[in-house]
Amino acid sequence: MQQTKILIIGGGIAGLSTAWHLAHDASDAEVVLVEREKHLASHSSALNAAILRTLGPDPLATEIALRSARFLRSPPAGFSDVPLVDCRGLILAAGDDLADSLSDCVKHLGGDAKVETLSRTGLRALVPAFQSDVAAAYRFAEEGQIDIAALAAGYARGARRGGVTLRRSCRVEALLREGGRVAGARLVGGEEIRAQITVLAAGGWAGELGRGVGSRIALRPTRRHLMVTAPERAIDRRWPVLWKLGEQQFYCRPESGGMLLCACDVSDVEPEHCTPVAEVKEVIALKTAHHLPALAEAGVAHFWCGTRTFTPDGRFDIGPDPDLAGLFWVAGLGGAGMACAAEVGRIASRLLLGTGVSRELAASLAPGRPEGARVAKW
Length: 378
Known about the structure:
The chain is an alpha+beta fold. It has helices at about 15-25, 60-75, 100-105, 120-125, 150-160, 205-210, 280-290, 335-355, 360-365; strands at about 1-10, 30-35, 50, 85, 90-95, 115, 135-140, 145, 165, 170-180, 180-185, 190-200, 220-230, 240-245, 250-255, 260, 265-270, 300-310, 315-320, 325-330. The model has no long low-confidence stretch (mean pLDDT about 95).
């Protein structure tokens, strides 16, 4: 039996960021992180499109993403030997259905984001293959593609140097409950890790583990597919990321000589059985023909899916369980984990240590918060 002050379940980007911040915020923090797989950050963290996009319809999520982006563009000395972001630029475009909403959100951005309005001509000059009509488009010059491997490695290396124990191939069978308190976890094979605080940062598996000890926190794991075309000479690897919002939502970016494509599909899934659905290839093909007609006949090089886990209202769950002492959630990042993890980990660390988080912020992210208006989604 192992004992620690803080046990983090999940070695994806949320768990790693939380561990890294704990190691840097408290010199005496005893932290153990367990990851079910042989490699860290191998599920949702490795299977997403790695896009740095900060703007969304929720002002709080946008602020979290902007703060994270500062970290990604200027990480601490020694964090990574390579840049964490390829600032090739990100274009957000919308049709008539969302043009006003997108424009209003851009107007309320602070001076931290470098954004410019694009005409249709300007948009097509940057991505000539894009032929869909839009009513509004904006280019975010300092956003683009995140180096997932470098970011995960930086967090893991820094956490280890700060004294965090990282254990891989450690699958949690169940949380340990003693009365109204969670006291750690039992691994497959019977080993127990006892902890004063157990942090659920297990992505799509977090909800199931919480339910196993009677937590009422609800999470919704969903599946989304991605596809990369075969290499095409017409594709310029320096094209920016392009995200068409609203009706016919779709995003794309250059990848390995081809184009990474996503039809923004959403379907419920059990994380244990998240496998690709072949029929979605046709959905991607139809949207590609609509938005990028020149690539409609491109071959398929890779096709896969990953999980995106949501809370009922669409906002992150970061904080203690409302009913079970000793249980803490860092969950429901809803596909924004890569872009927001740096600030999510900082918030989680400060809440765990009881330092420097406003009551308003804590209440806005508190698991089990009162149901209000759902956060709008683009």
